[in-house]
Amino acid sequence: MTETQIIDELKKGNENYLKYLYSFLPDVRRFTRQNNGDEEDAKDLLQDAIISFYENLQAGKYLQNNLKGYLLTICRNKWFDKLDKLKRQANKIKDIISINEEAEEDRQFEFRVQQRSLSDYLQDALNKLGEPCKTLIEATVYLKIRMEQVAQDYGYADAHSARQQKLRCLKRLKGFTSYEHIINLI
Amino acid sequence: MKDIDLIDRYLSNELDEQQQQVFKSRYLNDPDFKKEVEAYQKIYEGIEKAGRDSLKQRLEGYYNEYIDEDLSIEEDHKIIPINKWRSNMLVLSGIAASVLLVAFGIWYYTLKEAGPNQQIAQAPNNTKIDSGGKPGKYAGTKDHPTTTTTKKNPTTLPVSKGDQYGLTEGGKVNTVQVLRAYREIPMGYTFKDGVLSIYYNPTLGMIRLHVFKMGDQYNLWYDGEVYKIDPTTTEKPKLLIKTGQSEDFGVKTTETIKVQVEPLQTSATPSGNLTVHLQKADQAQYFFRKEKDKQVLELRGNFVPADSKVIEVKIADTRNWYLVYKSAVYELNEKNIDPTSLRELSGLSSEAARLFMKRDPVTVPVYARK
Lengths: 186, 370
Prior knowledge:
By secondary structure, chain A is mostly helical. Chain A is about 75% helix and about 0% strand.
């Protein structure tokens, strides 16, 4: 399996080829080990990088030809961002006033987890909507795959009819949600 | 432009500057429109979050497959062993490690030969490959004797002026063989002409399987459990009966034996639970419908009826349908009552697809235990 083959398959919609990208895990592990992280950090980092890559690829924004370098760069940037954040938090905790703020943030967090998330709410609505709408909406709204491609992959006559179907599905999806409810979800 | 069309273009960043101005002024002056935009904004945000969350969950699965399958990526022409310690171990520890890797190689190779996508599996470059049999043989040639009731004759339905569902131009309606297969935890086996065939567990891992002898008695060791093999079980598969538990399967002898892991369709029996109507069409689509309490699968596509099988797989109380066409496997969801595109399952990532893959027989050493 080569990088080119993997990218071709992913573009065709064979999402399961993403699993090959985990073969870069040893490289990410080496990186986190050298930078105050552990194995679990490496797995999480690579997972986030794979998601960014996959979203960019489907939206036509992946224009590189070195997949490994690309993923490792994302991992590196994300990791240093995280370390910065941790450092800032550590400085904050030194400050007594900030400790109260932290406590306030914790309470807010508790409130948040009790409530259902926007993600769960939409997942339920999408499940109610059923196929083929669910897949079509995921492909077009989440992955932002081009309509021409969608038409080809899902058997619509052309981009226009795929788009009409997408809009019909979105209208139906909205029917499964309530404005008063959804507007307050995060 | 309809509102939904306009809102979608706005949220997808597709409006030009002038259109955006028009959009904004309407947003500020029309409270109903504003509410509509806000709702869709949340819906789009939610779809992205839900999409990302479920991709995350699926990635956990892909990660586990990576762990199980020891995948690697070649950098176009050069094979790079990703798990470096594993190849180092090979150099250092010699024979024991080679045996392990050869076994991996065989497994990869059989998968490669049997898989629908012939380029997927790649054996590590430092392993020897011994397929132990002719590659590229598919299960269709060796079906269970009770599965020969295929109706191959095309019948023309009275409504065939055109496809009443608008999926084809019309044409002959063919029926397709429907089979039922069980996937049971106790495996079945036959033992004939030095070949041990294993049934009901097509995804069995050869690494965890050994054959050993105690005196003249052949036994199967699988994952720490011992099963006795009755040498008279030559035709109809018998269930393997566990006779004990042991980590010990003895020492290797020079004797070898062929082990054949059978795909599910080999032990499948005809099923009357479904009628399949197949019509030729450019696009592969399907849907389920009810006709007088009987379930009908309407199948469209470029399939040769004789090479198509629809298989019902029962695992405990759940029932799944699959279309097996030559070496390709497609999942059929009976909840789909509207025309739905057929999607091929990849044999490397989908366990379901592996249930139907013909694997080549593997030659394994026989161990001896006192």
